[in-house]
Design brief:
Blueprint lengths: L1 H24 L2 H6 L4 H37 L8 H8 L1 H17 L3 H53 L7
Helix pairs in contact: 1-3, 1-4, 1-5, 1-6, 3-4, 3-5, 4-6, 5-6
């Protein structure tokens, strides 16, 4: 039952996860074109961070408010226990939006290697968290591990961006 609840919640999260990629992917060519002008690149990254976090906050709020009707619509009454999981996982959207901006910034300045390192560390962290949290808290532990894993990834990407070029690092 716990697996089914988490899978239901994760399907919704997975769909929402695609939104930042879709919205922000139009910015990658613009960022890449600004690579030589670091001040311009910094301005663009800063604006993407601001807009991305506003959109993510709005989306999180909408998911938290609409989680119950969404679960009823998609899964029915038997999946109502997934509502708290949807709400927990929605918080990760803040990190996901910010993380995508950092990823595109790193790609624009040709630091893709930092992406691989950050993703590897975040993967190890989410696996370790899962091993600890899932046996103790089942589906809630899995949801928390996923949110913390996304947050760790974003923090690592922010660090990589700062180390790569302090000029373009957003406020």
């Amino acid at each position: 039952e716990a697996t089914g609840l988490f899978a239901t919640s994760f399907r919704i999260y997975e769909t929402l996860f695609a939104l930042p990629a879709l919205v922000l992917s139009v910015a990658l060519p613009v960022l890449a074109a600004a690579e030589a002008d670091r001040q311009r690149l910094r301005y663009q990254i800063q604006r993407l961070v601001e807009v991305g976090l506003i959109l993510a906050a709005y989306l999180v709020l909408m998911v938290v408010v609409l989680a119950r009707p969404l679960i009823l619509l998609l899964g029915g009454k038997q999946y109502l226990d997934a509502v708290p999981l949807v709400r927990i996982q929605s918080v990760a959207l803040l990190a996901v939006f910010l993380g995508f901006v950092c990823q595109y910034g790193l790609i624009a300045i040709r630091k893709q290697g930092a992406l691989a390192i950050a993703n590897g560390i975040a993967l190890a962290a989410v696996l370790a968290l899962g091993l600890v949290l899932i046996p103790a808290y089942e589906e809630v532990g899995a949801a928390v591990a996923a949110v913390v894993g996304e947050t760790i990834l974003t923090l690592l990407l922010l660090r990589a961006l700062a180390r790569a070029d302090r000029v373009i690092f957003p406020n």
